[in-house]
Each structure stands twice: as structure tokens, then as C-alpha cells.
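Worked example

This section walks through a single chain of length 213. The input is the sequence exactly as stored; nothing has been trimmed or padded.
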Amino acid sequence: MTDAQQWDIRDEAEEWAVRASSEPFRGKVTGVRTDEVLMPDGSYARRDYQTHPGSVAVLAVDERQRVLILRQYRHPVRQRLWELPAGLLDVPGENPLHAAQRELFEEAHCKAEEWKVLADFYTSPGGTDEALRLFLATGLSAAEGDRYAAHGEELEIEVQRVPLPELVRLVLAGELHNPTLTVGALALHAALTTGGVDALRPADSPWPARPFS
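Given that input, the structure is written out below as C-alpha cells.
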């Protein structure tokens, strides 16, 4: 029995009572919700957080064991960040695998033969309900057909392929800051040094945070 099994270390669904809830702002995709939440001492506390449809991301590895990464400008942090191909689940109930395959095509004009779930996580659970599913994609090759017509920040996307050990080194050195890239690089490194990628979950595994059909 592992320590995690012994102590039952896993996240569990729970919902504290809400006295009042409002949405003071609603944008095209995300919004801001304000809840008055009952605290354990009987008082109520205000919690403001971003509502979000959810996201997918792809850690794609080529035949030379290099990870495909992208760099684009992110205005809130005023930086051009190296990231993984990623996008919103802005169609209710959309299959996350299909969304991830679309993002890999649109942002990198690539496709992959094998898909696994690398990690599921909340990007910043103290401030947003965004849930993200991160896929591992292998058997990488160029996609057929015309490239996707980019717009906005995507017009200046840069693409590189970097060996995983170098990405891990850069993360630990504080040179890379995108949370999905950080989680992905460290998760793949952990998978390769433990049970291997064959032990990862199938690409169609259930995702309670964002159920799909």
C-alpha cells in the first residue's frame, strides 16, 4: 500500500452554503462572480472569482523526444511567454480530446497519432474555477491542408522544439513561467522516471470538473 492509499490523499467535491450570488461582470468568454459564503465559524465572507469554461493543452513530443512549444505575448503579465498549444472549451459539453486536437492543428499545424491524459488541474483555484486537461501527444507529424488563419496575439506566435531535459532545467532555473508548460514538463519527466507513459490515463478518461459526452 502506498502512502497516498494509506492516507486517502485525493481531492473531494464539497460545496459550502452560499447566502447570495451575483455576476457583476460578464465578458465574451469569462465573467466575475461574487458569492457570500458561509464560514465554519458561522460568519459570511465575500469571494470574488473568475468564471471560466475550462481549457485544454497539449504537450506534443516528436520522434527526437523534443517538446513543441510556442511563444506569444500575454498582456496581463506584460511578457512574451513560452507555452504549450492550448485553448478554451468554449462549446458546452465539447469533447476535450477533440478540442486539444484542434488547438494543435491551429497553433502548430501538427497532428499526433497517440494521445494520453498527462494531468488535470485547476489553474488558480483561489481566484478562478478554470479547469484544464493537459494531454500528452506523441507520433507527431505535419498536418494536411492549409494553415489556420491566425489573428490577434497568434499572428506573432513563434514555434520551437526543445528537449524535455532542457525544459525541466529552464523551469527549475526560473526562466519559464507559464503554469501549463511548467506542469507539463515536470509531469512528463515524472512519468518517464516512474511507471512510463503507458501508465498514463487514456485520452477519453472521465473528467468530473468538465463532464463531456
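What to look for: The chain has four helices and eleven strands.
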